[in-house]
Amino acid sequence: MRHTLEVLNQDTSQPCDRSQRYNPTDRKVTTQQIVMLRPGRSQRYDPTGRNATTQQVVTLRPGKPQRYDSSRNSRRIKDRLFFYLVCCCTFLTLIPLFLILWELIQKGYRQFNLGLFTQVAPTSMEAMLARISGDALPGGILNGITGTLLILFVAILAAIPLGIWVGIYLAEKGERPLARLVRNLADLLQGIPSIVTGIIVYIWVVRPMGGYSALAGSVALAVMMLPMVIRSTEESLKMLPASLKEAGLSLGGSYASVMLRVLLPSAFSGLFTGSLIAISRVMGETAPLLVTALGAAAINWDLSRPTSSVSLLIWEFYNDPNLAPLVWSSSLLLLLIILCINLSAKSIATKWKTQ
Amino acid sequence: MKDRIFRATLFLAAGLIVLLTAGIVYGLVSQSMDALTHFGPLHFITSPAWDSRSDDYGALSFIAGTLLTAVLALAFCIPFSFSASLFNGEYFRGRKIATVVGSIVDLLAGVPSIVFGLWGFYTLRPLLAGAGGQGFGILLASIVLAIMIIPYASSLSAEFIAMTPSELKEGAYSLGATRMEVVRYVSLPVAGSGILASYMLAFGRALGETMAVTMLIGNTNNLPHGLTDTGNTMASIIANQFGEAGGLKLSSLMAIGLLLFLLTATINFLSKYILKCVTLSKS
Fold it and tell me: Would you say B34 and B41 are in contact if contact means Cβ atoms under 8 Å apart?
């Protein structure tokens, strides 16, 4: 290609070549030369003569990539390759979930028995004795399960009603300055790292109460759930047709009863899904509980005392080599519960959308 | 009357959120004041020291660790999450396989941080340990972080890619563009800022991730010098040392928490701002 350009330049600026000097229609010779230098191509594309051919030479100036002029075949091959690459990488992203599940099942199924649900976590000493005699580890994670239930229950009780209320406010008074502020603050809350939530609750709850407690853990989880519930409430209320509210009001319903008896029930599945996802997200949280609920060896139903949770127990087992076998079964349990909640939330959401 | 009470409670609930946020910021600032005035804010940020015996604390090594792991995680996650979003938003948009892939990727977001940490510790670490050392370090932490943030990056950007107007794409096709060229020259420029925003959200996630990083990064209070070097992030130093801390150390940890809060808040607001601009120009 470079060669053809040189020929063209010589032709227009300084015709010094012998064969061109003697030719009166040198332009034609140049085009012919070009055609000869690129056999096949230019004839195929320019059946109408030299003008088009010269133009084609001009478009082929150096520096411009041959993006659209290269053969169609290579572009098609590139396209195919890109598609396969995308499929391949997408497939790779799916693998970790199954690898994790497989690892947990493979290592955890032996400890995944009734004892897991009916006994409290063993001490390091008991575990060591059992390991020396070659038995399966005694004990389970009952104190963690009850602790998770207690902490989560109180957090749900606090976060979901408040979140729904704020969500109603945002959906109704969306353009007021206060509503805009609250919406931005909810985004801000959602972005707070979980450990920072933990130390804030430590400042405001653990210190005034004089010690770690289940209540502090609930507050931390509630703060984390709140923005998710707010946003899902707002979104699902906004998706309802305005005629629904107008019909309720025109029938003489008061504003409050229309909101509570008409709009909220219609948006129920959206709220429910959003809340389920929020619950599943905070269920496995460890970092904020580490600095608020701390953990306990026995079953505890008292809100004002330190309490364990499944995730805290996993952290303890991880840090104690003697208890390591229990890590897998408790993680498996936690992961299965969370995945189940996620999947059911998803199926509710799709069912609701098709209606 | 009933209506008035109802509206008042709505207003109160919204006010409570404002109060909550104000409390969070006030709590963090007031608790970290001790450290910040003792060392001076600038010195605190730029000092790599972390010594309990001489009570000399600085945040530089943790800031460096945090940024390093998060940036690396983002770099590792981009090819995979971008492919996944193309897969769901362009190649198989609206088909059954796209929903299946999408829900599996979303399930990844549900896996608790601590389980990721365990998996990284017992499965990935031995693979990296072959190169020498125990395998702990920045590299291991950022690989696991990358897997953790894939769902956050991919699901949002898939939506933006799917929102590309089909007239534009059809125009490109009619000019003879292949699908890859349509993606490169039409979908990407149109969905670009939305994709950028979703990656920034994912980046914010990576900055604040605690448990998995704490389990994998090796927990040494020094400036990381390389990819396989151990270190600490802002979140992991808090998780590690909060329990036994008191006095100036506790206040320093709070100050690190405040810095982390400011960092993630800035990233989040930037990405939300971009998102807002994108959605405004769309409608």
Answer: no
CATH 1.10.3720.10 in chain A is located at 142-354
Q: What are phi and psi of A18, to 5 degrees?
A: -60, -50
HSE-up of residue B37 (Cα within 13 Å, Cβ side): 6
Q: Considering CB atoms only, which of A79, A87, A190 is closest to B178?
A: A79
For B233, the 3-state DSSP assignment is coil
CATH of the structural domain A142-354, one choice from 1.10.10.60, 1.10.3720.10, 1.10.1740.10, 3.10.350.10: 1.10.3720.10
Per residue in B81-100, pLDDT tens? 999 999 999 999 889 999 99
Residue whose token pair is 């005035």: B37
Distance from CA of A211 to the nearest CA of B (A): 12
Q: Is some CB atom of chain B closer than 8 A to the CB atom of A83?
A: yes
A99 touches chain B (CB under 8 A): yes
Whether A22 shows a pLDDT value over 70: the answer reads no
Contact predicate A4/A33, CB 8 Å: yes
- With CB atoms and an 8 Å threshold, state whether A186 touches B17: yes
User: Which residue of A200, A280, A282 to mutate against B (max B Cβ within 10 Å)?
Assistant: A200
Cα A176 from Cα A351, distance rounded (Å): 34
CB contact burial A12-39 (16+ within 10 A = b; e otherwise): eeeeebeebeeeeebeebbbebbbeebe
Residue range B187-202: average pLDDT?
A: 92
Mean pLDDT within A139-157: 93
| pLDDT tens-digit series, residues A239-291 | 899 899 999 999 988 888 898 888 999 898 889 999 999 999 999 999 999 99
Overall pTM surpassing 0.90 (yes/no): no
**CB contact (8 A) between residue A291 and residue B242:** yes
Q: What is the pLDDT of residue A346?
A: 87
Question: What is the set of domains in chain B, with CATH numbers?
Answer: 50-282 (1.10.3720.10)
Up-side HSE of residue B15: CA atoms within 13 Å toward CB?
Answer: 6
The contacts found for A24-30 with CB under 8 angstroms, 24 or more apart, are A27/A54, A30/A54
Runs of H (alpha helix) within B40-112: 41-46, 60-86, 96-110
Identify which of A195, A204, A343 has the shortest CB distance to residue B238: A195
Task: Look at A44-48, B25-29, B251-255 and tell me which has the smallest mean pLDDT.
Answer: A44-48
Q: Using CB atoms, which residue from B9, B103, B242 is nearest to A346?
A: B103
